[in-house]
Design a protein that fits this description.
It holds the Pfam family Ank_2. This protein is mostly helical. 43% of the residues lie in helices and 0% in strands.
């Protein structure tokens, strides 16, 4: 390399990804090559197409010390809003992380909120992917209960990202397991795998915590169609007939798979429970055109001739919401539903006849 540099090779040339020789040398952990390039005038602040300078790829204290002596910006941001500290935390580079902190980089650097990139003001603790790095950041003063723009803590992020080691490290360091976001939701609401549901509840998460709408985590799992998560939550104390204060729905009302329905019914869920509109789970499924879930409720004994508080039966709800296929199934299998008219049909017929109300 030195021969090329002596004969005038461009030390800041770029490849297709925008990487300079300095960035590539840092990525390959070649401290001697990094030092050589710097001595021959390589610019330490050159960035690639991602907006990352060599410091984002520097592995270990020696290389970071070297780059710092040549004036690298230790607090720069990439195009994705990452800083070197956050990037090294994400890549599990403990020694690089420690070196940056020793050089005075703030431990709670905040990633800018950006709707396009779906970033919400996270710190390194949110994106850290190893227990050792989590412990280092906390030991250096990281705010364990910092909240992003949505009000979520690092704990909720790691539950959602299914990162077990950082999650356990946070809890062992005193993170609140029932910290809520701006919607009043705890980390349990973001658990999309059975093992995380069980882990959180056994570590003390409130299984029947309600968010601002009165929803519980069980209702969330039910709406996702996660029968395994539903079964685990119920086994560990979740209330199957909890009623949301805002809409009066239960977990069965928002269920969308036969597997979830079976789990809930086997644990005593009320198949005829009405919400604030007077709709049973069957009527709710019908109103959204979910003929498969509607059929699942019918097969399990739900009454098909019930009417909502507005006087509409299943067929009328299907027609009003323009779910033609669902309506055809009901007309074929339940012809008796065509015999009654609810308020919607009465008003509709009047308008069609007289052109006004």
């Amino acid at each position: 390399m030195e021969v090329l540099l002596v004969h005038g090779a461009d030390q800041d040339s770029r490849n297709g990804q925008g990487n300079s020789p300095l960035i590539l040398a840092a990525s390959d952990k070649r401290t001697d090559s990094v030092e050589l390039l710097l001595r021959y005038g390589a610019r330490v602040k050159v960035v690639n197409n991602k907006g990352e300078a060599a410091i984002f790829h520097a592995a270990g204290r020696d290389m970071i010390d070297l780059l710092d002596r040549y004036g690298v910006d230790l607090n720069s941001f990439s195009n994705e809003g990452l800083t070197p500290l956050i990037n090294h935390a994400w890549k599990r580079r403990l020694h690089s992380l420690e070196a940056l902190l020793d050089h005075g980089v703030p431990v709670d650097q905040i990633r800018p909120s950006n709707q396009v990139l779906a970033t919400e003001g996270e710190t390194a603790l949110f994106l850290c992917r190893s227990a050792q790095c989590v412990k280092l950041l906390i030991d250096r003063g990281a705010h364990i209960h910092h909240r992003d723009a949505a009000g979520r803590t690092a704990l909720a992020h790691h539950v959602q990202g299914q990162r077990a080691s950082p999650l356990k490290a946070l809890l062992d360091s005193g993170a609140s397991i029932d910290a809520t976001d701006r919607r009043g939701r705890t980390a349990l609401f973001t658990a999309s795998e059975e093992q995380y549901v069980e882990f959180l509840i056994r570590r003390g998460a409130c299984v029947n915590h309600q968010d601002e709408d009165g929803w519980t985590a069980l209702m969330e799992f039910s709406s996702w169609g996660r029968a395994d998560c539903v079964a685990t939550a119920v086994k560990l104390g979740a209330s199957v007939n909890h009623i949301s204060w805002r809409d009066g729905n239960t977990a069965l009302c928002v269920a969308q798979t036969s597997e979830v329905i079976d789990v809930l019914l086997s644990h005593g869920a009320d198949i005829e429970q009405r919400n604030k509109q007077g709709c049973t789970p069957l009527l709710i499924a019908t109103s959204r055109g979910d003929w498969q879930t509607m059929s699942a409720f019918r097969e399990r004994g739900s009454k098909v001739d019930v009417v909502s508080y507005h006087g509409e039966n299943a067929l009328q709800l299907a027609k009003r919401n323009e779910h033609e296929y669902t309506a055809k199934i009901l007309e074929r299998d339940c012809p008796e539903l065509r015999q009654s008219l609810g308020p919607y049909e009465i008003v509709h017929s009047y308008r069609m006849t007289f052109g006004c109300l």
